[in-house]
Design goal:
Blueprint (H helix, E strand, L loop, with lengths): L4 H4 L10 H11 L5 E2 L11 H12 L12 H15 L8 E4 L1 H13 L5 E6 L5 H7 L3 E6 L10 H5 L5 E7 L11 H13 L3 E5 L24 E6 L12 E4 L2 H13 L6 H12 L2 H23 L5 E2 L7 E5 L7 H12 L1 E2 L1 E2 L10 E5 L4 H18 L2
Parallel strand pairs: 1-11, 3-4, 3-5, 5-6, 6-7
Antiparallel strand pairs: 2-8, 7-8, 9-10, 10-13, 12-13
Helix pairs in contact: 3-10, 4-10, 5-9, 11-13
The structure holds pyridoxal-5'-phosphate (PLP).
Length: 390
């Protein structure tokens, strides 16, 4: 029996730069102590107050089907958050609640791409992007974002790839680079979307993790609200990765159609999770800052270590829970560097190549272990780079 091409195509095929990741997993499985700096998962757990709200809701009987587009209170809470942060008037009719950001990425592209449409994404990219685009029947086309531009996509980078494209997927603050798009970059994105008549899918799941600069949503720019779908999530902002809760914010007619899609796919998000999310959003910035604080601290630790040497370069570390390091001076690819570092020092980092060709010769370090272990690992990494430098 044949399995569909669509599902087999999700992973692409060929070498994808994830060998080091799986090798680290095998070492851990075999009992080796490995410092894991690969995954975007907090080292703290969901705040007890959020869990209490979840328990209150579930034990109060809220365990049945929830309304498919999201509860009114959750949709209102998301709308209020977006209105307050961006100044763009947003109501519950602009909001679909989704089981996390990943499902929002999938649903957004489903909403705007037909079979065979070209969908753009920026390279370096979050690992699931090309598969997500293929999964909805679109043809992914990468927009290379160059290290010499700090991985920020310029208008001409985008325009060079835009002919015939239906959508452009952008992500700021960015995973894997840790870069926050400048106003000029976001204006270039908006201009390209308007001039080439593309939808903008704006992945903003790290919008509360900004260390330097300001998060600017493309939806706030002229003529963009009607062509932008914002993808949000509480995974990163509230350390709720396991709760699977996120959203899409966009024009009302798109949200109405997404409601229909959700009816045929997820059938909504559990009501007790939504109640917990409403509670968490109601706590405002204080809770989000508490969740972001360890990364802010470790970023400062990392910056200090890297400032004392000139072998390993640091891509401007402006947001998100990662640091992108340039290891090209060692003469190794990111993949070889990560592999040798794992063998020699049992420290696991992600090769840049696993996020696309533009990040070759880089490694991504997740700031997700406690401060002293993070500091020691980064010092070891720098020492290792010095040792192997030709
Ligand atoms: C850029 C980006 N978008 C989306 C997601 C998906 O997040 P979730 O599905 O947990 O909300 C992630 C997760 O790491 C991410 O890094």
């Amino acid at each position: 029996m044949e399995i569909s091409n669509r599902i087999q195509g999700l992973t692409g095929g060929g070498s994808d730069g994830w060998d080091v990741f799986y090798k680290a997993r095998r070492m851990i499985g075999a009992g080796v102590s490995v410092t894991e700096l690969t995954q975007g998962e907090h080292d703290i757990r969901t705040d007890q107050s959020i869990l209490d709200a979840m328990y209150r809701s579930a034990s109060g009987g809220n365990t049945g089907y929830a309304t498919v587009p999201g509860t009114n209170s959750m949709r209102d809470a998301v709308a209020a958050r977006l209105t307050a942060r961006t100044g763009v008037h947003t109501t519950r009719d602009n909001v679909l609640v989704t089981p996390g950001g990943q499902s929002a990425l999938f649903a957004s592209h489903h909403a705007v791409c037909d079979e065979g449409d070209v969908a753009l994404y920026c390279d370096p990219y979050y690992a699931t992007y090309p598969g997500t685009l293929r999964g909805v029947g679109a043809i992914p086309r990468a927009v290379p974002c160059l290290p010499e531009n700090a991985f920020q996509p310029t208008f001409s980078d985008i325009a060079a790839k835009s002919a015939g494209a239906k959508s452009l997927l952008v992500n700021t603050p960015n995973n894997p680079t840790g870069v926050v798009y400048s106003r000029e970059t976001v204006e270039g994105i908006a201009r390209a979307c308007r001039e080439y008549d593309m939808w903008c899918i704006s992945d903003e799941v790290y919008d509360t993790q900004v260390w330097d600069g300001t998060h600017i949503s493309p939806r706030t720019l002229d003529g963009m609200a009607e062509r932008t779908l914002v993808v949000g999530s509480m995974s990163k902002s509230h350390a709720m990765t396991g709760s699977r809760i996120g959203w899409i914010v966009g024009p009302e007619d798109v949200v109405e159609n997404l409601f229909n899609l959700a009816t045929h796919t997820t059938y909504g998000v559990p009501g007790y999770i939504q109640d917990a999310a409403v509670f968490a959003l109601g706590e405002g910035l204080a809770l989000e800052e508490k969740v972001a604080e360890p990364f802010r601290r470790r970023r400062a630790i990392g910056q200090n270590i890297l400032a004392e040497q000139n072998v390993v370069g640091l891509v401007p570390s402006e947001g998100a829970m990662y640091m992108m390091l340039d290891v090209r001076s060692t003469g190794l690819s990111g993949e070889d560097f990560a592999d040798k570092l794992l063998d020699a020092h049992h420290i696991a980092v992600m090769p840049g190549e696993s996020f696309g060709a533009s990040a070759a010769g880089h490694v991504r370090v997740a700031m997700t272990v406690e401060d002293s272990a993070f500091e020691a690992s980064l010092k070891t990494l720098v020492g290792f780079a010095k040792e192997i430098q030709p």
